[in-house]
Design goal:
This protein is an alpha/beta fold and 549 residues long. 34% of the residues lie in helices and 23% in strands. Helix 7 (147-156) links the parallel strand 5 and strand 6. The structure holds 5'-O-[(S)-[(2-aminobenzoyl)oxy](hydroxy)phosphoryl]adenosine.
Length: 549
């Protein structure tokens, strides 16, 4: 292991014990040097290789070339070190919508040897204070527009001593300090395995976990998934919806374009309607978003011109075959589904356009290995469902957390997903392992029923969970959002039930269907099945109480 550049050893001190690390494979093949700062590799290299005048990042009000971005980064790094006293290894909280300034601040922290703690804009003071305390950080950079919750956070913890606000030009603002700072900065001579990012998981329940990633990890995802599967070009323009605090967004909207000198277009608001408007205007060639957004865009496809798009990536949750088929019919593009995780930093199973099997996630990304294991930890036969286990050059390291021993088993990362591998080596997603519905002894995967319902013309969105049932233990219950103009009545319930029975083994059909206006989702676009389960459980209890009284 190379000598760390960290003066503040918090990150190294809180790595899991070595015997609980996953096995990292194929690192030699990537051939990274012992000393490396990923900010230099991802930004400065574009300048030194002659792409200084190339457009790096575009925001609502700014367009910076790689040279301009590199200068902003240097100025912020100087502010961090000279004004804020940042020492290598210190954590810095970032709180921004997706903007060019966030990107500059992100790389400034990395270049100065700090550790980035990026946060989702929608988080509240209560959640932010947990992150501040867990990361033991005292310094934050925050967009003016998110100041209120930042100040509430400051009041909740005694750690935050310095907050730089960005977006104004008053004395003391980030911009004023940058103006006065030098445009030159020598990168901190970090080790390739110095921690540079604490990625908090979008976990749906429980205390948040912080995953720890090294400088080399930031490049490894570019040199495995992006280089081998996505295969972007320098001329590409990237756009998408995930927040940069979600590693899906970080990789897809910043690291991947920067690794090849392409352009990142950042949207501060990136719901489906914003994408519909931005795509014809800004003409991205590569799109990163979640399955729901693909469906929402499809519903309004007549209203927009999607012809600039060349590649579309979907992750965060399973991409139903119906969505894949409809997108191909509408755009001629084969969506690249891929499963990733905050623990793995980015996507580790996917397929290139020419190798996609619609409905399957794909095969292990070059550099990664995957297998399906049974309850005893042994690999199961192809065709048998079991838990997904993966390993590669990136992997899970939780900051001081007992759950490390649950995620990493025998050197493999066990993601909590149930998968089936087919005889050709393709991996087929079934469900989150704890989302499998057991009804009358049958194992039913909610996402399979969802994918089927979504193919029905009346259905816009749906979520399928197990609802308690006195006879069957659980029954399959579907929460369905209908397309505009469709009325949810008893006839439609019967129609949808018959539809599923005709498409899947009949025991999987939803015995209960409820029509709703929206489904609960996380900021990363995931359906909150646990919230639906709670509703399903509460509903049954409420019913029971009424029957009893
Ligand atoms: C689920 C998928 C089926 C799966 C992520 C790309 O989602 C990301 O990270 P999270 O930590 O969640 C991980 C979990 O999400 N999932 C993600 N992608 C798919 N399920 N098909 C998919 N294509 O349960 C996984 O364990 O929030 C995704 C890149 C970076 C990421 N952090």
């Amino acid at each position: 292991m190379a000598r760390s550049a960290h003066v503040d050893t918090f990150a190294a001190d809180n790595l899991p014990p070595k015997d609980q690390w996953p096995e990292f494979i194929n690192l030699e093949r990537l051939g990274y040097p012992e000393r490396m700062n990923c900010a230099v590799e991802l930004v400065d290299r574009n300048v030194s290789e002659g792409r200084g005048d190339k457009l790096a990042v575009v925001g609502a009000a700014t367009r910076w070339t790689y040279s301009e971005l590199a200068e902003k980064i240097n100025r912020i790094a100087n502010v961090l070190v000279d004004t804020c006293g940042l020492k290598p290894g210190n954590r810095v909280l970032l709180r921004f919508p997706n903007t060019p300034t966030m990107v500059a601040a992100y790389f400034a922290v990395l270049k100065a040897g700090g550790v980035v703690v990026a946060t989702m804009p929608l988080l509240r003071a209560k959640e932010l204070a947990v992150i501040v305390d867990k990361s033991e950080l005292s310094l934050a950079i925050c967009d003016n527009r998110l100041k209120e919750e930042m100040e509430l956070t400051k009041a909740k913890t005694d750690r935050l001593s310095t907050i730089l606000y960005s977006g104004g030009d008053e004395a003391g603002s980030l911009e004023a300090l940058m103006e006065a700072a030098s445009p030159e900065f020598t990168a901190c001579d970090t080790a390739t395995d110095d921690v540079c990012l604490l990625g908090f998981t979008s976990g749906t329940t429980g205390v948040p976990k912080a995953t720890m990633h090294f400088h080399r990890d930031m490049l490894a995802i570019c040199d495995c998934y992006a280089r081998e599967v996505l295969r972007p070009q320098e001329s590409d323009v990237f756009m998408g919806s995930p927040p940069l605090a979600f590693t899906f967004g970080l990789g897809g909207l910043v690291l991947f374009p920067f690794r090849v000198g392409a352009t990142a277009v950042l949207l501060e608001r990136a719901g489906p309607d914003d994408l519909l408007k931005a795509i014809p205007e800004l003409k991205p060639t590569v799109l990163f978003t979640a399955p729901t957004a693909y469906r929402a865009i499809l519903a309004k496809k007549g209203e927009t011109d999607l012809s600039s798009l060349r590649k579309c990536v979907s992750a965060g949750e399973a991409l139903p075959k119906a969505t894949w088929d409809d997108w191909l019919a509408a755009t001629g593009i084969r969506i690249l589904d891929g499963i990733g995780a905050t623990e793995m930093l980015h996507i580790f199973i996917a397929a290139r356009e020419d190798e996609v099997r619609p409905g399957a996630t794909g095969k292990p990304v070059p550099g990664y290995e995957a297998k399906v294991i049974g309850p005893d930890g042994q690999e199961v036969a192809d065709g048998t469902p079991g838990r997904l286990a993966v390993r590669g050059p990136t992997g899970c390291r939780y900051l001081a957390d007992d759950r490390q021993a649950k995620y990493v088993i025998d050197g493999w990362n066990v993601t909590g997903d149930t998968y089936i591998r087919d005889a050709d080596g393709y991996f087929w997603y079934q469900a989150r392992s704890d989302d499998m519905i057991v009804s009358s002894g049958y194992n039913i995967a909610g996402p399979e029923v969802e994918g089927t319902l979504l193919a029905h013309p009346a259905v816009a969105e749906c979520g399928v969970v197990g609802a308690p049932d006195p006879d069957r233990g659980r029954i399959v219950k579907a929460y369905v959002v209908l397309k505009p103009g469709v009325t949810g009545d008893a006839d439609l319930v019967k129609t949808l039930q018959d539809y599923v029975k005709a498409e899947l083994a009949p025991y999987k059909y939803p015995r209960a269907i409820e029509f709703v206006d929206t489904l609960p989702r996380t900021e990363t676009g995931k359906l909150q099945r646990f919230a639906l389960r709670e509703i399903a459980t509460g509903g049954a209890d409420a019913l029971h109480a009424r029957a009893a009284s």
